[in-house]
Amino acid sequence: MHVLMTTSPGLNHLWNLVPLGWALRSAGHDVRIASLPNFSPAVVETGLPAIAVGRPIDKSLLDTGPAPDETGGTRGGRHRFERYGRRNAQVSALLARGLRPVLAGFRPDLVVHEPAELAGPLLAQRLGVPAVHQGWGLPMHPGVTGALHRAAAGLRRHLQLAEEVAAPALIIDVCPPGYDDGTPRPRVPHQPMRYVPFNGPGAVPDWLHEPPARPRVGVTVGTVLPSLGGLPLVSRVARLVSTLDVEVVVPLRERDRGRVELPGSGVRVVDWLPFRLMADSCALIIHHGGPGTTMTALAHGTPQLALPTVFDQFRNARLIERTGVGRALAHGQLTDAALLDAVRSVLDGPQYRAAARRVAAEIASQPSPTEVVAVLERLAAAPVPVG
């Protein structure tokens, strides 16, 4: 079976696809991931083949940023929805146009795409093969999905498709049943799949082999927020938390080291590493509420403190509290006293660890990516009408 995976040029978008890509490849299928030339090195680092199509683009388009799932009911929120949709449509148009000649030599039997990528499902419809939408956590806010569909209208006309947006043949849902905020889901078949964290390649550092002498607290703002002004939050949180009887660990890429002010003691600044490698050793993870970090912590049963600042981070933060796996503090609540109180309460409250382990057990009970491959094989064998 030939499987084409399509992704927007964002690390979390790509990383979400990798475990299923590996499972398909291990089952003997030919899997290739298509994205723009700027992003090919990141694809190659996953160990899966990259198809570089289109032309290199300006970084302002390359970094599509997180989806604007918050403030959707306001005029400003709707404007952000539309801007996000247009930006993704521009990137997807380059991908679709670049892929059309490639598909003459590599005709997929199945297309798997992440939620923000628009070219994959349209090309699948054009080819008459199933399109599979793989979620990265909570489903997108309906305002975002609507904006993406509207933004894709021009691309649909270019591909000579009907104006009606075709639903995916299947949605792969990596959220366990207990992690659900009630966001409406499309009425199409859903396939649960175990969330297997992949946060990029990396080596296990020597310090991680040493059991921590004090409770270890990891602090991160993911891969997107450092470029959006998130590093001062890392500095502030690490300085405050280091006053407690804990070991604070801050993974940073080399380019960000000089932009973060941290105390000389009480904080271990380490080279960036895949977050999943240190999750098990942490008594608490303090983060921004991004879906990749949130789901990684959930999969490892690690209590969390979410400090959301933008977009869908607020939804994850609310659900972290609702499921009992941790605490959340929005920007307006983030006083020094409130932060320290939240950290103490999670570290001292065994109920948070117990809840986190319950959710981790739910995730572990979901079908593995290897089991989902059999579902995709059957799907690819069924006829799909051309729209």
Structural features, described:
This protein has 16 helices and 13 strands. The chain is of the alpha/beta class and 387 residues long. The strands form 2 sheets. It has a 7-stranded parallel β-sheet, with helices on both faces. A 6-stranded parallel β-sheet has the order 10-9-8-11-12-13, with helices on both faces. Helix 2 (18-26) packs across helix 16 (369-381), helix 5 packs across helix 6 (119-127) and helix 12 packs across helix 15 (350-365). Residues 71-76 have low confidence and may be disordered.
β-strand amount: 5-15%
- Give the neighbour order of strands across the main sheet: 3-2-1-4-5-6-7
State the distance separating the first and last CA atoms: 22 Å
Report the count of strand segments.
13
Largest sheet, described in full? Answer: 7 strands, parallel
Q: Which percent range fits the helix content? A: 40-55%
| Averaged pLDDT | 87
Task: Give unreliable regions as ranges.
Answer: 71-76
Number of helices: 16
Order of helices and strands: EHHEHEHHEHEHHEEEHEHEHEHEHEHHH
Supply Rg: 21 Å
> What class do helices, strands and sheet pairing give?
alpha/beta
Overall shape: it is globular
